Amino acid sequence: KKVAQGEVIQLPQFGQGIPFNARVKRVSLLNLVRKGVVPNKLLSAAEELFYGKQSSKENVDLTQMTDVMYIMAENALVEPSIEDLKSVELELTDEQIVALFNYTQEGVSELDSFREESENTECNINK
Question: The pTM is what?
Fold first, then answer.
């Protein structure tokens, strides 16, 4: 039950000084494919993301890749949900989508390297 409730993590900020803590859960790309959450037209992109290789079936474009990553991010967010964000006219940033996708695949340890890069970037901006 605890796993289903997820955990609270810090995601990249919406803007300077606006932190984003969210309750998230790990989701399985394969289970989303199996349940039909990932549509057939995105299966090649899902294969490429999961296995890290070019699909032999068709060329995968950036739109397909980002669609799969967004589906993963949408299913990973527990609180606030994508609908909650939309209701206050917020959209996930590119960094947040990538961080959520990485979390679904690697867990919270994957976010550590992202935070270090983000902190270094902030330091450079302020100089």
Answer: 0.73
